[in-house]
Predict the structure.
Amino acid sequence: MGTNAQAAVPDVIDCLENCPSLHFISAWEMLGTLEEISGTNPAAIPYLTKCARGGDSCRLRAAVAAYRINGQTDLLMETCERLSRIDPAGLLDGLELFWFKDDPELNQHLVSLLERLYLDPKLDARERSSAMAELESRTNDAAAVVFCARFHEK
């Protein structure tokens, strides 16, 4: 879409904030559109930060969009950390973490978070399995953690 699409960033943000909740395009898809039209222009970052720190179901998607726009891990990791405490299934059940399985910079942070989740006794078997699957998808960055976890299971 190029830089001409960046002019639509304020309109997309306005739609996300003010359109009725039964809008024909979901908020999740609108966040993807906002990410796509922003390119590397940081104009959407304040709105995405507000969404990521909010309480709705799109907070992880907003943090992902911000990361893809500016490449900074802070907001995404802050959001992942918060979700790991309040809604581990919300963090582990989506595709967002899997999208970054080959991102070594992000994996420096995610692997330790996923290891803590895997070892958390409050997680049920499905959540623990999801945490292990996320670790296994990061084979190069999480090999030692996966090996240790498998060794301790026996």
Remarks:
- The radius of gyration is 17 Å.
- Residues 88-154 form one domain.
- Residues 104-119 form the longest helix (16 residues).
